[in-house]
Amino acid sequence: MCGQIFMYAIATGRAERNPVPDLRGALKTPVTKHHSHLKAADLPEYLKKLEAYDGDAITKLALRFLLLTFVRTTELRAAQWLEIDFDKAEWRIPAERMKMKEVHIVPLSKQAAAILRELKKLSGHHLYIFPNQNNRTTFMSENTMLYALYRMGYHSRTTGHGFRSTASTILNEHDFPPDVIERQLAHCERNKVRAAYNYAQYLPQRRKMMQWWSDYLDEAAIESASAGH
Q1: Could you say which of 65, 86, 103, 184 would form a disulfide bridge with 199 (CB–CB 3.0 to 4.6 Å)?
Q2: Which of 37, 77, 104, 164 is catalytic?
Q3: How far, in Å, CA of 178 to CA of 184, rounded?
Q4: Is the sign of the CA dihedral 227, 215, 163, 65 positive or negative?
Q5: What is the pLDDT of residue 110?
Q6: Which pTM was predicted?
Q7: 74-77: long-range contacts (C-beta < 8 A, 24 or more apart)?
């Protein structure tokens, strides 16, 4: 790309030579590092360990909710009760809290809504759904869930962000439309005009997909219990 820029600069009289060939091989392309994440076969064991987790109840529910919704951890930690609509079974994350700066709708499966009702008993009188353990007026720290995963034996095996890769991989393997998955992951929309109106795009399909995902996780949990892992 730099070479093309310099070629254009030479053609338009803005530069006399293209220095890019002199640098070939001098700059190494950074290696893409993917987040560690669980595979489908890992889920039964993980769900059993999560069920047995004896740490803070809100942290445990946060990990459950994160796997069910596969939002970014920053989006989950700062979630507020006013963003939840139980009647519509939706969590509507405002644009200012999203990486791509557009409103994002998370359809709530029956299981996700049940977790929120359980959380309502624990943090319903606070602004944040997942309040900080030391200061309830702010939200959960970035390391809380990560350290819980470490305690469960998942150091370097997965992260909260890794749940996004887990969900994406499994949903793709089960032939859900890539556009529907990408929309639920709130990945970048290249068309900025379209992006301003697409927060509800594929919403009916996403509702079905999110319920399927929750049911799939329930089946994985049952498999773990019946197998005696």
Answers
A1: 103
A2: 164
A3: 10
A4: negative
A5: 98
A6: 0.81
A7: 74/99, 74/142, 75/104, 76/130, 76/160, 77/130, 77/139, 77/140, 77/141, 77/142, 77/144, 77/145
Instruction: State the pLDDT at residue 47.
Output: 97
Out of 17, 88, 99, 194, pick the active-site residue.
99
DSSP designation for 108: P
Dist CA 177 CA 180 (whole Å): 5
Per-residue tokens: 207: 């509702």
How far apart are alpha carbons 87 and 181 in whole angstroms? Answer: 24
Per the residue annotation, which of 187, 194, 208, 229 is the catalytic one?
187
Q: Say if residues 98 and 81 touch (Cβ distance below 8 Å).
A: no
Cβ–Cβ under 8 Å, residues 19 and 6: yes
Among 62, 43, 72, CA closest to 119? 62
Say which residue the tokens 């990945």 belong to. Answer: 187
183: annotated active-site residue: no
Residue 129 CA to residue 65 CA, distance in Å, equals 11
Segment-wise mean pLDDT, segments of 10 residues, the chain, 229 residues = 86 88 70 74 97 97 98 97 98 93 95 98 97 95 96 94 97 96 84 59 96 98 72
Active-site residue, from 37, 64, 72, 206:
72
For 193, the token pair is 């005009």
